[in-house]
Structure formats: C-alpha cells, structure tokens
Amino acid sequence: xxxxxNHIFKTVFISSILVFSACDSLDEINENPNGVSPSEANPxxxxxSVMRPAATDILNLGYGDIxxxxxxxxxxxxxxxxxxxxxxxxxxxxxxxxLRTNKFLYQRAEETGLEFHKGVALTMKxxxxxxxxxxxxxxPYTMALxxxxxxxxxxxxxxxxxxxxxxxVINDLKAAAQIFATGNxxxxxxxxxxxxxxxxxxxxxFTNSLLLRYYMRISEKxxxxxxxxxxxxxxxxxxxxxxxxxxxxxxxxxxxGDSWPSATDFDAGSNFRRIKPCNTLLDRMLEYDDPRxxxxxxxxxxxxxxxxxxxxxxxxxxxxxGQVLNGVVSYQDMVYLQKIAEGNTYTRHYNPDLLGRQxxxxxxxxxxxxxxxxxxxxLNPTGGQQLENQHVSQLSDHYRGRSGGILKARIMSAAxxxxxxxxxxxxxxxxxxxxxxxxxAVRFSLQTWGVGDSYNSYIQNPNVAYDGSLERIIEQKWxxxxxxxxxxxxxxxxxxxxxxxxGEAAPEPQIAVRFTYGNNEINFNAQQVAKAIDRLEVTVxxxxxxxxxxxxxxxxxxxxxxx
Length: 563
Fold this sequence. Notes:
Structural class: alpha+beta
Strand content: 5-15%
Shape: globular
InterPro entries: SusD-like_2, TPR-like_helical_dom_sf
Protein name: SusD/RagB family nutrient-binding outer membrane lipoprotein
Largest sheet: 4 strands, mixed
Keywords: Lipoprotein
Strand order of the largest sheet: 7-10-8-9
Organism: Negadavirga shengliensis
Helix content: 40-55%
C-alpha cells in the first residue's frame, strides 16, 4: 500500500483541495463536486506530497551535479554543469512550493488535533529550510510563506541570515522530537507515511539525527551550542543506530517521477552512460580494497593490455577472448552487455613505447576531474556524443534499473550519524569513544550496500583503520555518502576534507561552494536579494559578480575553510 500511494499521491492531493472556477457573481463559489474544501483536507493526504519530492530532490542533487562537484562521478557528455560547476542562476521555487504545502499540513494537523502530523510537518520544515540555506545561504525564513497575507513585507519577504535560520531549524527539530517522544501516532494512516509507516519512534530517531547533523553544521560558528546539543542527543540514546534504520524512500518505477533518475531516458540509457566514476573516488577505493567498488561500478567493457611487442602504437580493433575481431573497433553498449554476460572477455593491445604514453589498463577505470575532453579519455575510439567509451567504467548494472534493490532515495543514514559522533568525540566532546563510532559508521555503510561481510578485512586496511585524525573520519564519510553527496559537500566546506584538486578545465581555482540566487528572486524580490548578496564574502571569481558559486555565505566566513 505504501508503494502504491507513492505513485498516486499527486492525484489524491489535487482532489483534496478546493477548486475555484468562474461564477456569475463575485460572491459565489462554484464548488467542484469531486473536490474537498481545504478546511476538510486530511493531513494524511498531504504528507506524501511533501515527503516524496523532498526525498527525490535531494537524491537528484546527490546523484547529479553535486556528485560531480565532490568528484564521486564525472560525465563525458553534456558535462559542463556536472564537472565544471556551470550551474547558472538557480531558483529555489520547488523547495518553497514544498514548504507551502508543508505549512498547510501543519495547519491542518493543528486544526484536527493530530500531534503526530504536527511533528512530521516540523521535521520536514526543518529539513527543507535547512537544505535551502545549506545550498544558497541567506534566505526568506521568518517572513517566508506569507504571500496570502496583506502587506509588502509579506509580498517581498526579507532574507534572514544563516545565523538566524540554523538555530530556527534546530528549535523546530527539538519541538518535533518532543512530540515523537510521546510515541503518539494517533490518526496516522501508515501507508501515507512514506518514510516510516507511522512509526513515531523512528521519526524520533530521524529528528534527533537531523539535530546531530545541524549541530555539527554550525560547529565552527557556534561551537558551544553545537557541543551541548550533540552531547544532549547522544545522552538521549535516540538516533539512528544501524543500517536497517537508514532513512530511505523506495522508487516504484511506475513513471518517470517514480523511477531512478537516469533509468527513464530513451535509447536504452543514454543519460545513464554519460555518468562515469571519478578517479578521485575510484582510485582511493581501489587502493583501499573497498568492497563497494563492484556494487557501484562496472568493470570496463574492453580492457587495455600493454604490449611492447606490438609493431604499432595500438590495436585498431578489439580482441574477443584474445582473438582479433577484424573491422570491429567497438561494440555498442547493449551488445557488450550481452556478450560479456555470455562469458566473453574483450581487450585491445597498445605499445607505450610507440604511443608515447601509458593508458589505464585496470579492470575499473574512471575519469579524472574536470577534463577538457572527457569523452576521449583513455584513447576512446568513439568519442563525442556517442558516449560508447568501452575503456572507462560505467556505473553498475543496478543503476540501469527503474526501481528496487539499492535504487532508493537516501535521506539520512546511520553511517552518517556515527561519523558525526566520531567527529564530536575526536573534538573531545562527551559522546563516547571516537574509534568505536568511526568503526560503527564504516560497518553500517558496508551493510547498507550489502557487503557487510567484508567489514573485518576492510577496517584493518592501514588506509582505513582509525588513526585519530579528522581527515580519516571525513574521508570515509565522503566515500559513504555515495548518492547523497550534498552532505559531503557541506562537510568539505566546513573542514576542507577530503582533499580535492581541480582539473584542467576548472573555471576557477577552487571548487564551488553554493548555488547562486535565481532569476525569480532577482527579478521579483530585487531589494531583499541584493541585501543578501551584499552579505556574501567574495574571495574567488570576483569578476563574476558577488552572486557567484564561489562566494562564501555566513557559515563559512571567518573559518578559513575550505580555503
């Protein structure tokens, strides 16, 4: 039932709102016989219309452009946004639309006396407002969502500073936690709660885990508030405790909006094939014998073989099981899949002495970050938009699907929570043992991706074992943030870890740190957005204007991070 609702909620929500149409008299309302008055709307029907897009939108960022910024992936076609921060002006309309619906959910929960639904609304308000300020910086907050009220101050809302928004997010999360602590879930229809099926205890754990996230977010700017808050949550013992408690939402694959984002394009996955592992991530995982490599990535279709006896620089044709296939430069992707599944192996030989350089001969090959011509990497014979680079790995076959298995919108994990606690302990805060939290975090991530049996060997790797440093904690947290890389982006801005280098096509000497305010705000709330832009600190890309991707909002100012 929960999955069915995930597909049909749009129709349910639309039919739950009063529809106005033309009338003979201005004081008449023509009521839709199939609609429901807003004063009678059921809060259960409103929950999925907030929860579902909040989950899919954060996944689209963490699997999309932010995965490129944090060098988890790179694209070799249509790549400038993904690889080089060519994001342009970016509106937040979708997030504020969710906040308006969420405000209505809260109002209806109050009117109907449904405390559980109030807790959900407060949690989602915090999650969404927190995401908005994380991504853009200062934003309408205390005066937001009042467009239905008279007055220019409501029509053109003032932007609050992050020093106001983050404590507000925390206060609402604390209020939600108090509601869920009662265990009361009266009135909830479990199928309409897409995250936890009406389980108040799990909502309490999620809310407290978000508190840990946001306390750590402000740790450089409000360290005492952060320390006290994290210690309080830790002492409560109520937070995500294992991989089976990860906050996720399933995809059901019934339509484009309900399917994994790259699995619904035409031509059997052309958008899917554009996404490649980035060497920054892949090289470290291979060096560490990380068992998640084969879960996330597929071996190259055709492997290069170094052969100094070859009389030419490289084979023009591929070899099948060692035998040259005359006239065959490359197979198309789907043909390769079929032939490899039948047990065939494919190689090409090259002579580095004659070619004058080395090629990547590994089983798994990624793209270096920010290449000028990523589609040509590793001597791809079919460059350009064909994107059939047989010599660079694709994502694993899991990600060709539309739904099921690991194809979930991942909102928060127990691994993230325990990395936060490991960092807090490493700082000397009273939250237990740093190494224990770190080891648990690594173990939970491996379990999440189905390779928990490899934990003992992985944690003993000298490059993985806890060494007491913040860098080691954040690096493993960055790896574990696969498909949820917005969090690793925010961690990198705060700590400078992991160490990431720009590439040859980087537009600026640093990685971008924020989204720019979009045209809607610039055109229709110009005075207020101008004040917010003036509060940004420009240290990189000054020739681009103050509203650029490298301008630091309050959360980074004065910290010396990430540069």
